[in-house]
Amino acid sequence: MSEDITQRITRNLKTPELIEVLSRLPGSDLHSLLLAVLKRRVASIDPAQLKRPNAASQASDVDSRLLHEVERAAYHSAGQFAAIELSPLDPLGALHLLTGLDQANTVSTIRAFECTSDPTLGLAIECARRRQSPADRRRLTRLCAIQRVTRFPVPRKPGMTAHFKLFSLLSGARDEGSFSFEIHALREHINVYLSFLASLRNKGFAFENVVVEISDTRAIGALCSRFGVDQEEIRASVKVRDPGSSERLLARYSSLWPGRISRPAEDLAEFDLPEHVLLQLGAIEREVCTRLAAEHKSVCFRFNMHRLNGLGYYRGPCFQIAGNNVREEFFSLADGGFVDWTRRMLLDEKERLLTSAVGIELLCRLFMLQHNR
Q1: SS3 assignment, position 150
Q2: Which DSSP string do the residues of 80-94 spell out, in sequence order?
Q3: pTM here?
């Protein structure tokens, strides 16, 4: 709820301290109060209103049998990951506290929960629970899940709906030194998604010009400092739902800013980036991009130094997989990167976590041949 709306409500009710007073109530008292309000409102609802079209509550338009077939292919591609069934609820505050995103992007309940808006949150919380003890943390944790999530506001983009299914991966481990876990986890996640997409080609799906783009928030943050790009300006101007927003912002700055490159150690050498970041990007080029390119010969691998929308979310390397459908429309398919969520939940600076996801319902709507004729 925006400040303007809350100010209008408190002004009309002549209770300027309303929000502050309610926020100080014990959780059980607040829940009881809100439940009493809802009971009164529900009593006045006509059952005929329930059938009115509603983006958040109406059924998906994708055939359920098709979704199950795609889900089986996804799980088959992730055989090394333990598959779990997540709760449809996350603890209240999970989205904002872990990602920094606005709480308004998720559906908060009157109890201490919120409807899941991203399966990686539930996976990360489960990962933290499984890595409580020092003995647990000596083991690699790999989890995957398929979950229907709800997000608001609904993006006005093709194939986007208020609720949809995502297939997500998570890899958690202790820092092993020499960037070894990060290399292995990145390669494994990207390989799972590329193998998954390849398997769908035999099920009536078509993907053209598939590209894997690697970015790194540390490198891009250093470039922002070098060229004087303000972080507040990025937050105000760059939106995940607007893929061109990064390019438009950077167009106002130096034409020397590197864009999409193939050899980061060489192409970024003149920009005085931290040496360890350049070394790690070079390792990603050799151990992730080059090795996967040999296996997935039709896929393009490159580095994108124009990605600004991950700066407040990821911590270090991140990736995106995108491609064209048969109508030559270009869409992002999968997205992932390293985050500090388990590090903060477990209070352990040695914890490392990679999360990622692909929209399987989006694939069915936009990349299945019979839907694109």
Answers
A1: strand
A2: TSEE----SEEETTH
A3: 0.90
